[in-house]
Design goal:
By secondary structure, the chain is mainly beta. Helix content is 8%, strand content 42%. A hairpin with a 5-residue loop joins strand 13 and strand 14.
Length: 245
């Protein structure tokens, strides 16, 4: 944690001096329900290939063009609308196309028709997290398992915990490797060819704790580190080369 505090302090001071040295004034505008946002609780956001900002909330998906907001919600009379208004995650594939995670499955957005195609195997499933790798393969976390989905042919593979653990997070590092976090405090490198794991216990040198669940993995874009968040608001820094934290 001392390393993280040092990094955050350096980032803060760097930003402070840059802002102080810059004579430009930045204007921040807040958007709420009164301004057209579907709900004030924002869950995620992303920018697509056309420049639109997509904002997910607990009650609908919002498309922002820089001036106005357009809201997309479930319409029981429209089979190509979103199946659920609670948006859990948003991401774009390598071609810039929007994909939407909800509490009732995964959807691919059709920009021409302004409609949503439901991915069949995710029906009635809560989508926790998904991400595209450099080969445009979609990886998603669903029901504690990791799924690799080929968006071209619709084929998918399921990677389930082989020792009873539940996968709670994952990330894709700059070298296109897939790392998994689980409910037992292990971070693991996945071999997609055979599904094997190379695992490290992130609590091997820690005091006993009531929860070892790893809730988020964030790969550094400039180093060999993965920042690992777990319950109780703590963070560990894991090095993928030395396998130490």
């Amino acid at each position: 944690m001392s390393h993280l505090k040092l990094i955050l302090s350096i980032l803060f001071l760097t930003c402070f001096f840059r802002v102080s040295a810059d004579e430009s004034n930045y204007l921040f505008r807040h958007y709420q329900v009164e301004n057209g946002l579907s709900d004030n609780m924002v869950t995620c956001c992303v920018q697509d290939k056309s420049g639109y900002i997509w904002i997910g909330t607990r009650d609908g998906l919002n498309r922002f063009d820089g001036y106005t907001l357009k809201v997309f919600r479930n319409d029981s009379d429209d089979a190509e609308s979103l199946g659920n208004n609670w948006i859990t995650h948003l991401s774009c594939d390598e071609d810039g196309n929007l994909w939407v995670g909800t509490l009732s499955g995964l959807y691919q957005y059709n920009e021409t028709k302004e409609s949503f195609h439901h991915i069949p195997f995710t029906k009635n499933k809560g989508i926790e997290l998904f991400q595209f790798d450099k080969n445009n393969q979609l990886w998603l976390l669903m029901d504690g398992t990791l799924i690799q989905y080929n968006i071209t042919d619709g084929q998918f593979r399921i990677f389930a915990g082989n020792q009873g653990q539940t996968y709670t997070s994952f990330c894709i590092t700059p070298d296109n490797s897939v790392w998994l976090g689980d409910s037992e405090g292990f971070i693991s490198l996945l071999n997609p060819e055979d599904g094997s794991l190379e695992s490290c216990d992130l609590f091997a040198h820690s005091n006993a704790t009531t929860s070892r669940k790893l809730s988020m993995l964030y790969p550094s874009p400039t180093s060999a580190n993965i920042y690992v968040a777990f319950e109780h608001d703590d963070v560990k820094i894991f090095n993928i080369f030395s396998k130490t934290y």
